[in-house]
C-alpha cells in the first residue's frame, strides 16, 4: 500500500492558517491529528476526539519516551502531537494534515523529514497587521510582539517547502489542494511502484 | 517580475505525452518552443511558427556556439531546441512547456537545472504495448525495440521530478496542471518576494 503523506500548514498568527486548514480537512479525506494536553477538559470536550487529556506526570513520561512529533508549553499547560496515531494513519495510506506554529513545524520536519511544510502568509505585513487589528483582541504591545514574531517566522522560510499567500481564502485553499495532489506525483513518492513496474517481466 | 517556469513533459513513445502536452497548452497561457531543424519545409509549414529552418552548416554553427538546450538527429535530419527564445519567454514571466524524449529531457535538465521534469507513463508496460499495437504502425521488431527503450527510459526515473500515470487523459492533464500550479508555490520560486517582504520596513 502507498504510504500517506504528512502535510503541515504553518505560518504566523493572523495569516489564516486555521481557516485554510478547516476547509482542506472538510474537502478531502485527510486525517487530523488529535493533540495531547495537560490542561483540564472543558465542558463537552471528549477524550480522543478533542484532545487526549493527560496529567503533567504522564505528559513528561511521554516526552522522555520520545512519543511526540512536537510539544509546546502555553500558559503553564502542555500541548503536543503524539507520533503513534499519526504514523499509523500514514502507514495505512491516509494523508494527515496539521496546523501548527512555526516552532512546531520545525520540530516535525526534524523528526519526520518527509513532511511537506507549507507556510501560509498574508500578501504583506501591512495586511497581517490589519487582520490582527481587525480581530480586536490585541493591544498595541501584543500587536507589536506578534508582528515581530511573524517576521522572525517568515525569515525561517528556507525550512519550508511551499509558501501560500492568503489573499483570497478560496484561492489559498485551492493552492494547498494542488500542492497535496502534486506531491503525490513526485518521483520520490513513487519509487516503489516504479521499481515494481521495472522488475515485472 | 517573477520568472516563468520551464516544464518538460517526457516519457516513452506511446505513453501519451503528446496528447497531454496539447491539452495543457490549450488550457493555459504556457508558451511552446519552436524547434530548429535541418529538414526541408513541408507544404504549408511556416518559418518561425512550425520550425526555424536552417541548413546543416548553420545548424552545426549553432551547436558549436552552444545555442541549443537539446539537439538530436532523426533520420539524417537534425532537430533542436534553441535556448534564446525560451530564456526570453522565461525572463518575461511566461511559463514554457516542452514535449521531448527522455534523452532531450536529460539534456535540458543539465543545461537548465531549474526545469521541472515530468515523466508520463502508462499504468504498466502491458498497457504501453497495447497502445503501441493499437496504433497499427509497429511491426514485432520495432515494437520490441520501443518497449525495450521504454524500460531503459523509466529506469532513469531519478532524473525526473514527477511521474504522471496516464490512465485517463483528463486526469493526467489535471495532474500536470496541479504540478505547474504547485511549483509556483515552492519556496525556492518565491525567495525574491519573501526577501522583499522581509526587507521592507
Descriptors:
homodimer; alpha/beta; four-stranded mixed beta sheet; five-stranded parallel beta sheet; 9 strands; 201 residues
How big is the Rg of chain A? 18 Å
Fraction of residues of chain A in helices?
40-55%
Count every helix of chain A, treating DSSP H or I runs of 4 or more residues as helices: 8
Computed structural class of chain A: alpha/beta
Give the oligomeric state: homodimer
Structure description:
The structure is a homodimer of 201-residue chains. With 201 residues, chain A is of the alpha/beta class. Chain A is built from 8 helices and 9 strands. Chain A has helices spanning 17-27, 56-64, 83-91, 102-111, 125-135, 140-154, 169-184, 191-199; strands spanning 6-10, 31-32, 35-37, 51-53, 68-74, 77-82, 96-99, 116-121, 162-165. Chain A has a 5-stranded parallel beta sheet with strand order 2-7-1-8-9, with helices on both faces. The longest helix of chain A has 16 residues, at 169-184. The radius of gyration of chain A is 18 Å and the shape is globular. Chain A starts with 5 loop residues before the first strand and ends with a helix. Chain A binds chain B through residues 118-119, 121, 124-125, 151, 154-155, 157-158, 160-164, 175, 178-179, 181-183, 185-187, 190-191, 194, 197-198, 200, and chain B through 118-119, 121, 124-125, 151, 154-155, 157-158, 160-164, 175, 178-179, 181-183, 185-187, 190-191, 194, 197-198, 200.
Amino acid at each position: 500500500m502507498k504510504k500517506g503523506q504528512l502535510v503541515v500548514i504553518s505560518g504566523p498568527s493572523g495569516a489564516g492558517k486555521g481557516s485554510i486548514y478547516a476547509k482542506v480537512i472538510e474537502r478531502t479525506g485527510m486525517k487530523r491529528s488529535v493533540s495531547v494536553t495537560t490542561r483540564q477538559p472543558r465542558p463537552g470536550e471528549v477524550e480522543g476526539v478533542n484532545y487526549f487529556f493527560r496529567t503533567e506526570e504522564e505528559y513528561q513520561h511521554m516526552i522522555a519516551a520520545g512519543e511526540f512529533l512536537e510539544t509546546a508549553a502555553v500558559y503553564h499547560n502542555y500541548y503536543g502531537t503524539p507520533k503513534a496515531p499519526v504514523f499509523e494513519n500514514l502507514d495505512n495510506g491516509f494523508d494527515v494534515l496539521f496546523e501548527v506554529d512555526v516552532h512546531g513545524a520545525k520540530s516535525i520536519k526534524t523528526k519526520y523529514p518527509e513532511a511537506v511544510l507549507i507556510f501560509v502568509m498574508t500578501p504583506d505585513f501591512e495586511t497581517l497587521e490589519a487582520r490582527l487589528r481587525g480581530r480586536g483582541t490585541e493591544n498595541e504591545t501584543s500587536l507589536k510582539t506578534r508582528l515581530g514574531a511573524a517576521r522572525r517566522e517568515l525569515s525561517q522560510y528556507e525550512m519550508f517547502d511551499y509558501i501560500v499567500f492568503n489573499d483570497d481564502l478560496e484561492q489559498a485553499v485551492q493552492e494547498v489542494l494542488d500542492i497535496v495532489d502534486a506531491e503525490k506525483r513526485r518521483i520520490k513518492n513513487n519509487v516503489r511502484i516504479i521499481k515494481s513496474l521495472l522488475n515485472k517481466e
